[in-house]
Design a protein that fits this description.
CATH class: Alpha Beta
Largest sheet: 4 strands, mixed
CATH topology: Ribosomal Protein S5, domain 2
Radius of gyration: 18 Å
Number of helices: 3
Number of strands: 4
Order of helices and strands: HEEEHEH
CATH architecture: 2-Layer Sandwich
Distance between the termini: 57 Å
């Protein structure tokens, strides 16, 4: 039996089409440590995709270390993440620490989820004193 805080296979974005959809949706937020792209996934849980560009971080060992840090931050903050979105996470720098990723990921996930929600419709009528 797996613990509720494990990183399960169904929580991983695997398909290149899902990555492309998130990048094309152009809903992203960032801070000095991470860039998070988001897109609705139609599920009842968040999923994680990690993109670490080889052009920005040359050493494979550094790319793999960053992926482990981001996966662990996702695993430990699953309860704080909004459900129903795919999060594609890109680190900004090879010096990313676990503490920085752990602090940033839930905040950025909430911000990107807020950007994904449609704007509230404007009322079509102006309330009058008689209606109040």
């Amino acid at each position: 039996m797996t613990s509720p805080a494990s990183f399960r296979p169904h929580e991983k974005v695997k398909s290149p089409d899902d990555f492309r959809r998130a990048f094309e949706r152009r809903r992203s937020v960032s801070d000095p440590f991470l860039i998070v792209h988001g897109v609705e996934n139609g599920r009842d849980h968040a999923r994680l995709g990690i993109a670490v560009p080889r052009k920005r971080i040359r050493a494979a060992s550094a790319r793999n270390r960053l992926k482990r840090i981001i996966r662990e931050a996702f695993r430990l903050s699953k309860a704080e993440l909004p459900p129903g979105i795919d999060l594609i996470v890109l680190p900004r720098d090879h010096r990313l620490t676990f503490e920085a990723a752990r602090r940033s990921l839930p905040i950025l996930a909430r911000d990107v989820a807020r950007r994904l929600k449609p704007p509230k419709p404007m009322p079509t009528t102006i309330p009058t004193k008689a209606a109040q």
